[in-house]
Amino acid sequence: MLEKKLCFIGAGNMTRSIASGLVKSGYTSSLIHATNPSVEKLDALKRDLNIKVSHDNLTAAKDADVIILSVKPHFMQAVCEELSVLDLSQKLIITIAAGITANRYKDYFAQEITLIRTMPNTPTQIGVGMTGLFADGDISQEQKLICEQLMKSGGEVLWVETEEELNQVIALAGSSPAYFFLFMESMLAAAKDSGLDETKARLLVQQAALGAAQMVIQNPELTTAQLRENVTSKGGTTAQAINAFESGNIRGLVKQAMDDCVARAQEMAKQY
Ligand SMILES: NC(=O)C1=CN([C@@H]2O[C@H](COP(=O)(O)OP(=O)(O)OC[C@H]3O[C@@H](n4cnc5c(N)ncnc54)[C@H](OP(=O)(O)O)[C@@H]3O)[C@@H](O)[C@H]2O)C=CC1
Ligand SMILES: O=C(O)[C@@H]1CCC=N1
Question: What is the DSSP secondary-structure string of 112-174?
Answer without folding.
Answer: --EEEEEE--GGGGGT-EEEEEEE-SS--HHHHHHHHHHHHTTEEEEE-SSHHHHHHHIIIII
